[in-house]
Specification:
Elements lengths: L4 H10 L1 E5 L6 E6 L5 E4 L8 E5 L5 E10 L4 E6 L20 E6 L7 E11 L9 E4 L11 E4 L4 E9 L2 E6 H10 L8 E7 L5 E8 L4 H4 L7 E5 L2 E2 L3 H10 L3 E7 L6 E7 L9
Antiparallel strand pairs: 1-2, 1-4, 2-3, 3-6, 4-5, 5-6, 7-8, 7-10, 8-9, 9-12, 10-11, 11-12, 13-14, 14-15, 15-16, 15-17, 17-18
């Protein structure tokens, strides 16, 4: 006999956790991905090396960061526990517009809050690069980030991430399971960038932050520098920088503008061994 929606939702609640950072007033949600304590959430929720995780049974456990991918806004935390109710993941490529979905999270202090809706759209979002998203008309609020978006069978088909034009946007489940398999290993440059349009209509990536001790700091790249290409290939979006880092093989040549931006400079940056946090 098929399970009722209430039973499915209760099972999903038990696989959903609350994530809090030390000293932070607000938190987010996460999904238990394995019975031995692995939890997947958003990278913007797991911003530090450690967090506190509240389980459905009332236990509060310390968690450490295992992997973090800001590009896809995913992170993995680990708690020392066993026998946890891990969620089942579904095939997000099989989703169809109009399909019933449910989201569970901890918005504004309401633990295990449930909202339902339908799939509104699938694919990329203007201004967010080539990444795919699942858009659903579910009601999300601060605290839902990192929680599950599930189908009518309770299978996780996305990780809720943000609100776009009133719709909930989730990282597709297949991207989540791929992230869990690879552990987000990749080369890290150590910069935060934002795409801007230059006077000659080219796209540049302006450096907003340089992490101390990073390859970018050693180069050095400065805040305000505008990256224009890698290995002579012009950037069209932030995704192009991530792809260039993936293809770099340990050495990347960046072309950039500095100061009055009258001339292009070049720097060769040697990248360390792949680490858990992507550039």
């Amino acid at each position: 006999m098929p399970l009722a929606l209430g039973e499915i939702a209760e099972r999903l609640r038990r696989s959903t956790v609350q994530v809090l950072l030390p000293g932070a007033n607000a938190g987010g949600s996460g999904v238990i991905s394995s019975a031995d304590g692995a939890i997947v959430t958003n990278a913007h929720v797991a911003r530090g090396g450690h967090a506190s995780v509240h389980l459905w049974d009332g236990r509060e456990l310390p968690a450490k960061l295992l992997a973090r991918d800001p590009r896809r806004d995913l992170a993995t935390l680990k708690v020392e526990a066993s026998g946890l109710p891990a969620a089942a993941f579904g095939d997000s490529s099989a989703l169809r517009v109009g399909e019933l979905v449910m989201a569970i999270g901890n918005p504004m202090g309401f633990i295990g809050a449930l909202t339902t809706g339908v799939i509104h759209a699938l694919g990329n979002l203007p201004g967010f690069g080539a990444q795919s998203w699942v858009l659903a008309d579910v009601r999300l609020a601060p605290g839902n980030s990192g929680g599950p978006l599930a189908d009518a069978h309770g299978r996780v088909i996305g990780i809720n991430t943000m609100i776009v034009h009133g719709l909930g946007a989730a990282v597709p489940g297949n991207a989540v399971t791929a992230f869990l398999r690879r552990g987000a290993a990749g080369f890290s440059l150590g910069v935060t960038v934002q795409a801007v349009r230059l006077e000659d209509r080219r796209i540049g990536l302006v450096v907003l932050k340089v992490e101390p001790g990073s390859p970018a700091a050693a180069a050095p790249l400065w805040v305000g520098d505008v990256l224009t290409s890698a290995g002579g290939r012009p950037f069209r979006s932030v995704d192009d920088l991530h792809q260039a880092l993936s293809d770099a093989g340990g050495l990347i040549r960046l072309q950039f503008l500095r100061g009055d931006r009258a001339s292009t400079r070049e720097v060769a940056i040697r990248l360390p061994h792949p680490v858990a946090e992507a550039a």
